[in-house]
Amino acid sequence: MISFNYETDFILEDEAAFENWISRVIASESKELGEISYIFCDDEYLHKINVEYLNHDTLTDIISFDYSEGKILQGDIFISIERVRDNAKDFSVSFEEELKRVMIHGVLHYCGYKDKSEADEKRMRAKEDEKVLMFHVEH
To answer: What GO cellular component entries does it have (predicted)?
Structure first.
């Protein structure tokens, strides 16, 4: 089950399309969907979580808490809509494309992909590209 929660004035258009896409991405990695909650918020909300739970006094676009067990993916994914908007401008991509990338980034972490080293980050980016393209492909 995938749920979408809103702590800011943003609303995801066509939740069903996103749910379908995320489910297909999870299946494409030979994993199973447990419960994943997306929480869309603003910088202040996410900064507070970053400080409180991770001891990081910085702004970020995403924080994911992974409760996965084996092949069953579960967790909470917090996304700052403000950060996604700013990053989209910085990277010269549409807000929608950057949002999809960030949304799937959290799921890829649950699948075991890391992004701390340069090699891991390169692999993560390639996986993000691959999975974002899947949004437009119906199966």
So the answer is: cytoplasm
Stretch (H or E) spanning 99: helix 95-110
Give the length of the chain. Answer: 139
3 contact partners, CB below 8 Å, separation of at least 6: 35, 36, 37, 38
Q: Per the annotation, does 115 bind a ligand? A: yes
56 annotated ligand-binding residue: no
pLDDT in tens, 77-128: 999 999 999 999 999 999 999 999 999 999 999 999 999 999 999 999 999 9
Q: How far apart are CA 21 and CA 5, in angstroms?
A: 17
Class of domain 2-134: alpha beta
Q: Are 40 and 10 in contact (CB under 8 A)?
A: yes
